[in-house]
Amino acid sequence: MVSAVVPLVDHSSVYKWDFNDDYKCILSRVLGRGCFGVVRECTQRKTGCIYAVKSVRKSGNDCYLENEINVLSVVDHTNVMKMIDYYEEPHHVHIVMEKYCGGDLFDKMESLSAGCFTESMASNVIKSLLSAIDYLHDNGIVHRDIKLENVLYEDNRCGATVKLVDFGLSCFHRDGYDQPLTSFVGTTHYASPELIEGRYAKMVDVWSVGVLLYILLSGCMPFIGGNNRELFNSILNDDLDFSLSSVWRYGDITPNAKDLIQLLLVKDPIGRISPKKALLHPWFPM
After folding, report:
1. Whole-angstrom Cα distance, residue 136 to residue 143?
2. pTM to 2 decimal places
3. 145 part of the active site
4. In terms of DSSP H, where are the helices of 142-274?
5. Burial of 239 (0-12, 13-18, 19+ CB in 10 A)
6. According to the model, what pLDDT value does residue 250 have?
7. Which residues contact 63 (CB under 8 A, 6 or more apart)?
């Protein structure tokens, strides 16, 4: 006897069963891989429009996948990836998304001769990213995996819009209503002190932006260690060091840049700057 297939989520407006009826997936066009699935290029048969599709095999414990679909079904922001369609089949789930072809921040850094961004380049990215996070937090959403590889350029044009992607670890969480989050998720070098200690909320995203900004301007991690234990000890206890001139490839960074990094990387989440206040920081051009 075949057991019934229970849908992960009930989204009647986008819930469909056969992805291949509507889209042609090009198996050789792999755009990215992650722990939760493979992203490939696909073409909508009716319109000929090209999109990206994330295909994930169902495991029976798909809470992260369910969270991702729930989040992407409600978000609408210029700097946040857009879901086009969602398909659930007996053994796979397919999430059809806009395709962004400009590469990620890691790719961009590698293409630069200095190996890092100028402050002007970085400020445009960070302002867009903070705007996206402010929007998510206002809507009770925590991303939990902000890093270079999860920020993509929409296309290859100069000044292209950046998009925050990969909501596989995101979740809904309301400060003051829900219990603190406790599961350790994300990427270790971007982990905040409170995430390491196992009780955290939305401000983990702000910390990750601070790490990302430090990397963009220096090409280096702000906290290091030979293993996770040493790394976590550094994150919990070490102060930021701006004194090493060799770190800043374009010469010493400006006082405003240093100040914003320090505000984003305050170890106590209560004292850490909010995305809304960070957007008003004088480092950003008026």
Report:
1. 8
2. 0.90
3. yes
4. 193-197, 203-218, 228-237, 255-264
5. exposed
6. 61
7. none
Amino acid at 222: P
Structural domains for the chain: 16-97 (3.30.200.20), 105-278 (1.10.510.10)
**How far apart are alpha carbons 105 and 100 in whole angstroms?**
12
| List of residues 6+ apart from 236 with CB closer than 8 A | 193, 196, 197, 267
> Which segments of the chain have a pLDDT < 70?
1-16, 34-36, 60-61, 244-251, 286
Are the beta carbons of 236 and 193 closer than 8 angstroms?
A: yes
Which has the closest alpha carbon to 98: 41, 13, 170, 37? 41
Q: Are 173 and 235 in contact (CB under 8 A)?
A: no
Choosing from 85, 104, 134, 145, which is the catalytic residue?
A: 145
Radius of gyration of the chain (CA): 20
Signed CA dihedral, 93, 146, 139, 154: sign only: negative
| Element containing residue 34 per DSSP (H, E) | strand 23-34
Tokens of 63: 């809470």
Two structure tokens written together for 173: 């969480």
Amino acid 28: pLDDT:
78
Answer whether 172's CB lies under 8 Å from 122's CB. no
Q: What is the pLDDT of residue 251?
A: 65
| E strands in 50-170 | 50-57, 83-88, 92-97, 141-142, 151-153, 162-164
List all residues 6 or more positions away from 197 whose beta carbon is below 8 Å from its beta carbon. 236
Q: Is 129 exposed, middle or buried (0-12, 13-18, 19+ CB in 10 A)?
A: buried
The amino acid sitting at 240 is L
- DSSP string covering 107-120, please? HHHHHSTTSS--HH
